[in-house]
Amino acid sequence: xxKPLTTLPTLxxxxxxxxxxxxxxxRGDTSNWPDRAYxxxxxxMCGDPALIVGSGTGRLLLDYLEFGLDVEGVDCSPEMLxxxxxxxxxxxxxPTLYLQDFQRLALPRQYETIVVPSQNFQLLTNPSDALxxxxxxxxHLRPKGTLAITFMxxxxxxxxxxxxxxxWDLIAEALQPDGTMVRRWSRSxxxxxxxxxxxxxxYEILEAGEIxxxxxxxxxxxxxxxxxQQAKSLFEALGFQDIRVQQKFSFEFVESNxxxxxxxxxxxxx
Length: 270
What we know:
- By secondary structure, the protein is an alpha/beta fold.
- The protein has helices at residues 18-21, 23-27, 34-46, 61-66, 78-91, 127-139, 228-237; strands at residues 6-7, 50-53, 71-75, 97-99, 111-116, 141-152, 162-175, 181-191, 196-207, 210-224, 241-247, 261-267.
């Protein structure tokens, strides 16, 4: 039976409902994503224990635990963490997972390495929250510990002030174990003046070609982006040392403030 469009209530966390339940399925095989080996090598180089901020359903966390690294995860979505825990159980793993906001971490240990992958930091659209998160990361690092954050600069190549994508784009679709089809559609607006992205995602469940369930997830704003210099300034404001702005998932320095995807690393003082 067709169910009317369901707009879920706004929660304190963003990844819930079908967004969380179908997250892994709609992303498909992520084993060759370049950040997987990059952050694994970074943790090996800088040392564990390590913390993955925004660990979600465990894409990186579970892989690193299987690799033998001492890694823990924190996320603000209980539904994403529940998926991670279920996957871990199937693998015979017992990860340490925390349900906390990034800007208010209160964890029982400090870490040699803290990793914030997948542009998770940019979900903090309020500048004061972003600064509090940086303070929180700094507090949870051991002396001389390393923080690494991946950033995306959406406005690098766009001269317009506002860019609208009013048409729905089909992002992904996949068959679920029960034989139904799930689809994710998305549309967005980019505010280049304030460096904010506003997004709307629609999830459809289809049975025998008919839509049986819909969910809308609106995030306004959904993310804030940074130029390389702005991201570096966040590290400088907290007193991080040996700050490096690197191209994508490599150890090559970024040479332009227009870089689109980059990782910033910094070391806490002694």
